[in-house]
Amino acid sequence: MDTALEVYNGVETRTPEIQPIKRRKKQSKVWEHFTIQFTQPGCRRAFCKGCNQSFSYSNGSKVAGTSHLKRHIDKGTCPALVHHHNTQDSNEMTTPQTAKSETPYTDKSETPRRRRYRTQDRSACVVFDQDKCRREIVKMITRHGYPLHMVEHPGFVSFVQTLQPQFFDALSFNSVQGDCVATYLAEKQNVIKCLEEIPGRFCLTLDFWTSKLTLGYVFITCHFIDSDWKIQKKLLNVLMEPYPESEQALSLAVANCVSEWGLEGKLFSVTFNHPASKPAAENIRPLLCIKNTGILNGQMVIGNCVARTFSGIAKDVLDKGKEVIKKIRDCVKHVKTSESHEERFVALMEQLQLPGEKVLSLDDQTQWDTTYKMLVAASELKEVFSCLDTVDPDFKQPPPSAEDWSHVETLCTLLKPLFEAASTLQTTGSPSAVTFFHEVWKTQSDLSRSITGEDPYVAGIAKTMKEKADKYWRESSLVLAMAVVMDPRFKMKLVEFSFSKIFGEDAGKNINTVDDGIHELFSEYVALSALVKPASEDELSEFDKFIIKERAGKNLKSELDQYLEETLLPRVQEFDVLEWWKQNKLKFPTLSTMARDILAIPVSAAAFDYVFHVEPREMDEYKTSLRPETVEALICAREWLRESDASSAADVQMSSAIVNAET
After folding, report:
1. Global pTM?
2. Where are the domains of the chain?
3. How far apart are the C-alpha atoms of 447 and 452, rounded to whole Å?
4. pLDDT tops 80 at residue 154
5. Distance of alpha carbon 373 from its chain centroid, rounded?
6. What is the average pLDDT across 431-444?
7. Which UniProt keywords apply (predicted)?
C-alpha cells in the first residue's frame, strides 16, 4: 500500500503485479491540503489534512478528478481552514502579499460564473484604498442623512475596526465634515455646468423652514425647461436666516442665490411656499429686473403656492368642524387602539353586511388629508358606530348623532375638491400652471355655489374658504392665465369663458389685463431677440435682414397674433404642451422662447411629500447645531446625488430596453 507521504510527493511504490508507470508530479495546489490513501484494493480516497474528511479519488481505472476537492477548500466548508483564517484575522491584518500565499486554490481555468462564489479568494486580493473608502462613507452619510458624529460612536468604531483597522485612523467628525463639503463642491460644479446649458430663464421657489432656535432656513429651488423641452428642477441653496420675520429675509436669500449662481438676467418668476408680507414681496420684485429690464416690471412674483393655499383653506374647514371631528376621532381611537375593540367592530360590520372593505385609521393632525380620509371612512361606517355601544361594553362615550354625521358629510363634501386638486401635485411629476388653472377655477366655482345654498352651516364655512381662494386668484390669475394662453387647446378662449363665470360684470376688465400682459411680454421678447447677434455672418445674413425689413414694411401679424388666431387644437387628455412647442419652435421662434419660460413657472413650492402639511416644516435639532455651510452642503449634495442615482438607473434601464428591442 502506498504511504501518504509517497503519494503526496508524487513517488509511488508499485507492487510486482502492477507494471510501473512513470507519473508526472502533481501540479495542482489542491494537494497542499489533501493526501491520497488506499482504502481497499483498487480504490483510493483523498483525505483533507485539516479535518481528515475523505473524498472519492479513484476506483480501478476511473479517476474522480479534483473539482470536488477544490470546492471543499474554496467554499470554506473545511472547519479547520475556517478556524485558521478566523484566528489569523483576529491576530494580525493580512497584507495583499501574505494573503496571496494563504488563499485557497482558485483555478484560472474556471468560468467567471463559478468565480463569483469565491468570496474568500476575491476579498483577500482586494487592495485597501483609503481615499475610496472615505468617499463612500461620505456618500452614505449624505444620501441617508446620517449624523456626522456617527463616525465617533463606539458601535460604529468597533464595526469599522473589525472590517479594516487602518481605515478608522482617518475618521473623525472634522474629517468627515470636510469630506462632505468637498463632495458638495464637486457636485456643485456639475450643477453649474448643467445650468449653463439651459437655453431659457429660471423660476425660483422659496420653501421656508422653521427651527426651535427661532432660526429660519430658506430652501431655494430653480425650475426650468431644458434643451429637450423637459421640465426640470434643481435645489440650489439652503440658507440660514437669523431673523426670519424681517421684511428683508427672503429678498436677501434670493439676492444671494442670484449672485452665487450667476442668474442675473435669467430670472423669470419667484413663488413663495408660505404667505409673505406685501413689503417682503415688493423687496423681491427688483431682483427680477436685474439685467432683465422690462419683464413685466417684476410682476412674476407669486405670493403663495397653490399647495399652501389649499392647505390653508382645508385648515379653516377643519377648525370650523373641530368639535364634531373630535367626536369622530375619539370613536376611531377606541376602535384602533385595542385589538378586542377592533374585532368587535369588524364583527358588527359583517353583521350589518356592509359592502367592501373599509379602511379606518387615526389621522395625523399635521396633515389635513389624513383627517379627510378618516372622516370619509368613518362616514361610510356610521351605521356601525351608531350601534357600537350595543355590542362593545367598553364603548362608554355616546355615539355621534345624526346631526353630527350630517356635519361630517358636509366637511367631506367641502374638502373633496381640495383633496383631489392637491393630490395632483403628488400624482403628477411636474404639474403645470395649465393644470391648476382648471383646479383653482373649479374650486372657486364650487365655493360660489355653496355660499348661495340654503344650509347656513355650509354657507358659513364656504364663505371663509372663498375669501382665501379669491386672494390666491387675485395674486396668481395673471400667471395661470398666461400659461393657459400658451396651450394651443385653449389660448384666450378659455380665459374669456372662465373669467365670465368668475368675475361676472368685471370679466371684461380682467380679460383685457391678461391680453395686455401677454402682448406686452411678447413685445419685450421681440426686443430681446433683436439684441441677440448671430453666431456667425454668412452669405445669407443680408438676406435675413432684407426679409425682416420687408415684413416690417408690410406690417405683418406678429407670431403671437398669428398663434392666437389659429384654430384651437382638439381637447385631448394625453396632450404634451411642451412637445407641441418643441415641434413648432421654427414656426414661432420668438413666441416659443416666451412659452418655454411661462410654462416653466411652478405652481407649488411645497416638496413632493409635504403637499398636505398645514404647518411649516421644521429643521431638526441636530442640523441646527451644525454650521450653516455644512447644513447647506449636506442637504444640497443629498438631492444632487439622488438625482444622479436616478439618472444613472434610468440610463441603465433605457440601455437594457434598447438591447432587448434589438435582440
Report:
1. 0.73
2. 1-124, 128-246+260-271+626-663, 446-530+559-603
3. 9
4. yes
5. 24
6. 77
7. DNA-binding, Metal-binding, Nucleus, Transcription, Transcription regulation, Zinc, Zinc-finger
